[in-house]
Amino acid sequence: MATRFAAASALLTPFGVGTDEQLSGQLWESPGRGQAMVPPFVVESVDSQHIRGQVTLSRFYQGAAGSAHGGVVALVMNEILGTLANRPEGPMRIAAYLHIDFRSSTPLGQPLIGEAHVDREEGRKLYLVGTLAHGEKVVAEAQGLFLAPRPA
């Protein structure tokens, strides 16, 4: 199999593109922006101050004891907060800080509701807070700081 994959890779090499040309992470209208590792967070509502959506984690994201891996929960929270931080009317922002509090095991194969809102904005700094819940049970809480680029 390794030999076959190496041969297939060699056949695809001429079709490679640079980072600025790749589609992965650039498909803004697609859940996960076209990134294979990002669980598809489907936005139900979003405005300049709040976002709400849904994600269902498959067994691909399993961690210990049949629940979602904590790193995946952090990835989902980064996706939720990052989507709000990069709302159309504002500048592009990147995560500078993300703190996750795990409140409960995160189930697989069940719909989870993710929400976030703007806590405050200070110049190029945007502070966000969010939750991930299964029904009424909050499974994770997040606080994040997202930064816009420094003025040129």
Q: What does it look like?
A:
By secondary structure, the chain is α+β, with helices and mostly antiparallel strands. It has one domain: Hotdog Thioesterase (Thiol Ester Dehydrase, Chain A, Roll), CATH 3.10.129. Helices cover 18% and strands 36% of the residues. It has two helices and six strands, in the order αββαββββ. It has helices at residues 2-12, 70-85, and strands spanning 42-46, 50-56, 94-102, 111-122, 125-134, 137-147. The chain has a six-stranded antiparallel beta sheet with strand order 1-2-4-5-6-3, covered by helices on one side. 23% of the residues are buried.
Write the layout of secondary structure elements.
Elements (H helix, E strand, L loop, with lengths): L1 H11 L29 E5 L3 E7 L13 H16 L8 E9 L8 E12 L2 E10 L2 E11 L5
Antiparallel strand pairs: 1-2, 2-4, 3-6, 4-5, 5-6
